[in-house]
Design brief:
- It is a single chain.
- Helix 1 packs antiparallel against helix 2 and helix 1 runs parallel beside helix 4.
- The N and C termini lie far apart (42 Å).
- With 90 residues, the protein is mainly α.
- 60% of the residues lie in helices and 0% in strands.
Length: 90
C-alpha cells in the first residue's frame, strides 16, 4: 500500500498541491500514513494472526524491513517510469 500511494501521489496528484479538493496529495498521503501506522501497531486481539496462533512470531525488525522495501519499491517505480510520448502536431 505504501509503494502504491507513493507512486499515486507523485504521478497523479503532485502537481495539484496538497488538498484533496483540488485533486492533491492529501488522500494518498493519508492512506500511506495509515498503512505505515497499521504496520507498526501490529496484530490485535481479533486479527487473523491471533486466531491462527501465529501472532508475535516475527521480530519487529521484519516490520521495518517490509516498510523499507515498500518505500524503496515506490521510489524505484518512479525512477523507472517512462514519460508518455508527446504526439507530433502536423
Amino acid at each position: 500500500m505504501i509503494s502504491v500511494m507513493i507512486v499515486a501521489a507523485m504521478t497523479v496528484h503532485w502537481e495539484h498541491g496538497l488538498f484533496a479538493a483540488n485533486n492533491g496529495i492529501e488522500l494518498p498521503l493519508l492512506y500511506g500514513a495509515a498503512a505505515f501506522a497499521l504496520a507498526l501497531t501490529g496484530f490485535g486481539q481479533y486479527s487473523l494472526d491471533s486466531l491462527l496462533g501465529i501472532a508475535g512470531h516475527l521480530p519487529q525488525t521484519d516490520t521495518w524491513v517490509a516498510l523499507t522495501i515498500g518505500v524503496i519499491g515506490g521510489f524505484a517505480n518512479l525512477a523507472l517510469r517512462r514519460r508518455p510520448a508527446v504526439a507530433a502536431r502536423t
